[in-house]
Each structure stands twice: as structure tokens, then as C-alpha cells.
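Severity: low
Component: inverse-folding endpoint
Summary: output formatting inconsistent between runs
Steps to reproduce: submit the following C-alpha cells with default settings.
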């Protein structure tokens, strides 16, 4: 089967959904292709500052998110620790239900005149007038464009969120600790949720996996 779409966005993550919502606010329809069978809400938080809130205000979701996340102490800036799941679900809920097509993995892309032929894993083909890649690290669009493969940055991280039914006692500010190539911290998202992280320099990805196995084995993670 072949279908023609004006704008196809690959990837229903933050970038893909925000792009689709921005177009929707302008009255422009787009189709978002997502390889998984549902919205991928894994991940933890984003530190959103003044410029980010201006962008969220443009797509009319800033107030919804502000009500769910505490403002942190800052130097005249609006800083909040926004949970990724909440951000994704808010973006998705503001879009028409037909915008995101799940279980639509892109396997290859080719050009046909002014159109891009987007081949999906189910054998169907989409003809896109405009193709936008928002499909993350192992991007099919980036591969088609000839971008370099991602490389190891030399830092590894362990992250998580904790929920306190009765609330926590942390002040609304960022608690961070540095030393010997290690960074760690705790940041409240709201009155009941906190985000924590631990990052460190490592010479290889295998060193990170060894460290993670050690932490899990001894119950420190």
C-alpha cells in the first residue's frame, strides 16, 4: 500500500510530538510515525528553564505543566524539574487522535522526484512531501542523510525518580555534589516526587556496565 502525506515526522518522542503540536497550532496537519506500539514514556526528567518555558508557552501547554511541577529557587529564572512522562502525555493529549501512528517502524528511505518514499516494516510505503527526523540516537532519517553514527561521550549515568505518598521534606532547589569526576544530585519535581542522578567519567561503556552490575548486586542502586 502507498499513501501520500504532506508532512511525515519520524519518532513520537519529545521532539516529534512538539513539532507536530507546533504545526497543529498553525492549522497544519502532520503524521507522526512511532516504532513502538504505544507512547514510550520511559525516562525521567528535564531541567526546564526560561527559554524552554517560552517554547512550551508557544504550543500552549506551559500552564498545564507548571501546575504539576514546583518552581525551584533560581536567580530570576523560571526553573522546574519536569517529568518526561508528564511532558510526553501532555503533548500527545493536545494532538488529534489520528496524528500518531504506532507500530510503524521505518526500515528505509529513498527519493522519488520531490517525494521521499518511507518504507515501513509492515511492507507499506508512505510518500512524504516533507520528512522530519525526530527518531533519536539510532535515527533511520540520520542514517539516510549520511550522518555519522553516535559515539561514546566518556560519561555514564544512573538516574531515577522516587515517589513519596506522604510527601518529602526537600526544599524546592537543586542539591548537587561534585568531586573526582563524579557528579550526583537530588532535585524535587513537586511535593511528592524527586529526581536523583549519579554520573561519572568512564573510559568505556563496558566499565559502566561493570559498575552497574556491582551496584545492583550489592543493593546500592
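Observed output (run 2 of 3):
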Amino acid at each position: 500500500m502507498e499513501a501520500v502525506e504532506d508532512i511525515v515526522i519520524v519518532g513520537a518522542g519529545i521532539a516529534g510530538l512538539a513539532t507536530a503540536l507546533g504545526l497543529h497550532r498553525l492549522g497544519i496537519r502532520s503524521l507522526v510515525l512511532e516504532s513502538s506500539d504505544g507512547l514510550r514514556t520511559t525516562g525521567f526528567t528535564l531541567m526546564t528553564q526560561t527559554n524552554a518555558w517560552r517554547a512550551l508557552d508557544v504550543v500552549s501547554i506551559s500552564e498545564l505543566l507548571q501546575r504539576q511541577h514546583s518552581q525551584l529557587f533560581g536567580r530570576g529564572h523560571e526553573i522546574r524539574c519536569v517529568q518526561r512522562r508528564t511532558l510526553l502525555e501532555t503533548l500527545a493529549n493536545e494532538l488529534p487522535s489520528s496524528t500518531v501512528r504506532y507500530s510503524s517502524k521505518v526500515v528505509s528511505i529513498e527519493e522519488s522526484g520531490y517525494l521521499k518514499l518511507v518504507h515501513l516494516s509492515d511492507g507499506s510505503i508512505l510518500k512524504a512531501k516533507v520528512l522530519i527526523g525526530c527518531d533519536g540516537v539510532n535515527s533511520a532519517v540520520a542514517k539516510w542523510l549520511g550522518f555519522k553514527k553516535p559515539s561514546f561521550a566518556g560519561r555514564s549515568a544512573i538516574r531515577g525518580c522516587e515517589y513519596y505518598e506522604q510527601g518529602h521534606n526537600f526544599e524546592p532547589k537543586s542539591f548537587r555534589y561534585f568531586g573526582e569526576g563524579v557528579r550526583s544530585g537530588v532535585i524535587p519535581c513537586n511535593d511528592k516526587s524527586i529526581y536523583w542522578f549519579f554520573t561519572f567519567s568512564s573510559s568505556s561503556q563496558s566499565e559502566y556496565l561493570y559498575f552497574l552490575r556491582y551496584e545492583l548486586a550489592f543493593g546500592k542502586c
